[in-house]
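Supplementary Data S3. Sequence and structure tokens for construct A.
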Amino acid sequence: MKNMKQKFFLKNLLVFLVPLSVSVLILGTLSVYVTQKYVEGEVRRNNLNLFFQIEKTTELIFNEMEFLSISLGGVDVLYQLDKIFYTRTLTLENLYLIENIKNYINAPANARPYIESVYVYINNPHGQFLTSLYGLTRFDQFHDLGWLESYQNNQDNRKIRIESRTVQRYRFEQPVRVTTFYKNLYSPLNEKSAGVIVLNIYTEYIERQLKAIAMYPDQHILILNQGEVIFGTRPISLSPEHSARETFTLRDHETEYIAVRQSSENREWDYVILTPKKAMNQIPSRLGMITLSAVLAAFAAGLLLTAYFTGKNVNHIRNIISIIKSAENNQPLPRLGSVKNDEYGFIIQNIVKNFIEQHYLKTQLNEKKYRLQVLELKSLQSQLNPHFLFNTLETIYWKAVRLTGQPNEVNQMLEYLSDLLKYSLDQADRVVPFGKEINHTMNYINIQKIRYHNKFDVIWEYDEKILQCGVLKLLLQPIVENAIYHGIQEREGKGRIKIKIMRLNDTIRITVIDNGKGMSPQELRHARSLLDRETEPEKHIGLYNTCKRLKLTFGDRCEFRIRSKPWWGTVVHMEYPC
């Protein structure tokens, strides 16, 4: 028995330590390579996330300028401002007009903490202009005239210009750093600038926002406009050589940085992220320490497990041999103690019980799985509504700004939207007749036709008999929405969408075809890969949810395919049992 115990100990020791030794050898060989790749990938993902957040932050400022330009750049508004600024005697009508126009510039200035002030100036001999600070004022009464010279020197520039300045309202206050955005106003009757909108942004506020989104200690973010740093979490200067490269190394005092530059998609801006090398090297060092600690802990655990399982196996074998010998010798079975303390006896006597319990657990698991599918279906269905609702409400808002109080397109959109909301928010049925689903989709299409000024036509092709067949609720609308936003919207000229519904024996086949922008092979592969993900993607949510709902409902009995060709269009094909 002693020799048997030694053999078991050596055998278990080899079982635990040999795989561990091989793992340590492989880990030691590949640790440097794997760690470096991990760090590079992590930094790359963090940088992409930072670039996305920076783009969102800067777009807010440009959106404010575009809003002011649209609100104040109309012919009627320019005429009213010109009329007010050219007279020094304010009538009651002029005061009323001033209050109305002030609302346009006061709204963003009061609502946005990063806006210092807004000025609106129309060329006039009296030097009068409108501000969000004091309303109507003159050059000789205002503390800030640094913007005037810049405007006068750039009256032919139709782009949004940017300039870094300092502003001091009162003598006892410290100067405030601002970044000024200029947008010239033009009259349709004159090629030359009629005036300018000046938007002053708190530079330190934007820099604090950039500092808050940094992911590493001592990481810095710079925003460049034509090579000049306009926002930055640290005063670091870049040479023209640096500004032209996407990745470079920069040393500032005692710190060495890895810099990554990316250009804005919509603006003439460059974003630069400076990550300290020492922050990047901390991760490999920590991983090395963790790996070493894990190896030592595993080695110690292997020894303990070897000793434990050796003793346990020897005791079990001793009991089994004792039982076998007693049976061979026709002797009474040895006393094994309580069933609960005898592992083998407990297992044998409870096989039937365990089988019943496992069967019961399996039944419970299937029931939970079914409930999970139902909940996920409801969740996926509810996610489809807000995505479209916000876009529609935004469209109705801008329509209402331009239209009069008489019945118009806004009324039609509200009627369609009311029907859409009733249909979408009704949780009574998950499967509806095709006729009901088609009417819902037509309401959505009618809204989008008004929004895009009949930029596209929709062709329906189906048999009247199919109207009574069942279809998953909200199945067609996300596919049509995807065709409009990712295909027709970016296409020049009028587009076309064809919706074809067929019944082949016991199968329903739905095909949605558009002649929009289409997708490149890389984009198509990416879109197809999103359909197989377990988590919801950031793009193509409608396609993902629709595909997910079909698979949860019909499993392998359904098909969902996407085909596309650049500038030819996209085809979405669905097929499922009737």
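Construct B, processed identically:
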Amino acid sequence: MFTRRDFLVRAGALAALGAAGAAGLSACATDTSTGTAGEDGATPVRGGTLTLGTTGEPDSWDLHVSVSTLSAVALRPVYDSLVHRLPDGSFEPWLAREWTVSPDGLRYTFELRDDVTFSDGTPFDAQAVAANFAHVVAPTTGSRNAKTLLGPFTGTEVTGPHTVVVVLSKAYSPLLGGLSSPYLGFHSPAALAAPVAIAAGGKGVISTGPFVFDAHTPGQEAVFRRREGYTWAPPSAAASQGAWLDGYTYRVLADDSARIGALTSGQLDVADSVPAGRVKELQGGSGLTLVARDTIGAPFTYSLNVTRAPFDDRNVRLAFQSSVDVETLVQGLFQGQYGRGWSAVTSSTPGYDAAVEGTWGYDADKAASLLDAAGFTGRDADGYRTRDGARLSVELAYAAEYTTSEQATVHTALQDSVRRTGFELVLRPLDTPSIVAVLSSGSYHLGAAGPTGQDASLLRTLFHSTLLPATGGANVSRVADAEIDGWLDSALSTTDTTEQAKLYGQVQQKVIGEALILPTYVGRRTYGTAQRVHGFDLDSQNLPTMDRAWVGG
């Protein structure tokens, strides 16, 4: 259901839970075709292969089923999307050359390119789009993330060979963002007839992208090769005439030390998920290049359950929030490699409201005054605050299996921080079935997560009253606020990005002002690359641009 280190937010307990042999280098081929000079001044050379070491194997090779970021890392170069999201949050054509949205926001009409084929030779057309979306929503598929990205989807209408209409039951402004994701990429109709083969990986994975899934050794590696004749990259991409690489290998090296060791010894070209504690070392004359982006989605965040005492009292929540010197905590634990979070979403997330910055922070005197006002005026023998003789004790429930060492360190640091103002924080590690049951029932004080997302529409999953963990959401604060619901509903129904930003900003300001959450660090996904690797970067969804990478020198 989850990968150990990476997950993508979906409706349901996923967001709540989430906070979850060496490869030889291949020599460059003799093909000397070149392109324009890259950012480092070097001229791309076609040929050669690249080996990327990452933390684990995807939960499924069928992107319509997967909830793992690892699936997208491996398969983005295999799957194209209808539209392409740019770094500024806008969209450009890809498999769809143009699109229109009905005035009521219920019908998205896409005019598809007529020159695209799947790697098995099958034409990409409106019927293929309809078949894929039917596969996503079919109960037998068991889709979680991809189905969520389609929102209130009711079906597709094929109105021409290359014209398809996506029909919704209500307006859903994040739809284009979902359609830009690899999780809503397209399987060949022939592959859909054997979905088990898709999920297993290898030659059963057939799509339209610049690379083809060639071979798979479960638990060890997946091999991809360049597809000849690819000419339909989005306008902003460098792969309009196909990828530079002959292929790439996705190698599983779960242990951080082994993965980084393989990179520094020349056995890997690229290493995924460089730990924060190794960044300075690798920057210091190692000859490696580090490529990193802040998380798109939420910081690693503690959610305070407003339905359970003592966090049903706003003063107590504010006191808890004021008890933690987030800046010092993050700097001390991560040596400046991670920034602090101010809001429910990170500053790199489209829709982030910078106005929340500086509006809250560490204030021990304020925390003490608030606890006095809440009636916790006593102290017990261990120094914890008491009210009517009962200790001020709260419990953090978290999924032990999917908690990284970095997250566990933050839990302990938080425990120490709030103790100084009189809170006892009890850490309660749970197995997966238990954390699902606890979050569904509401029998906890705090939850912890750092879910990723496309944009600030993630706020709906996190704070809408209808999206509790037990009902398919990640509202771990369990807030039921008519004003927040109204803003989120309005943001969902408008395609005016300025109005969306205003509405999402209001949500961000209120959830901080009401102390529904305590954001901590903003994670970064850092890749280390060898000297011979050029053009390796991350796209607007923080996924590697393997179609633009090349090797040489």
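The chain has three domains: 31-55+210-293+526-553, 60-198, 301-522. The radius of gyration is 24 Å.
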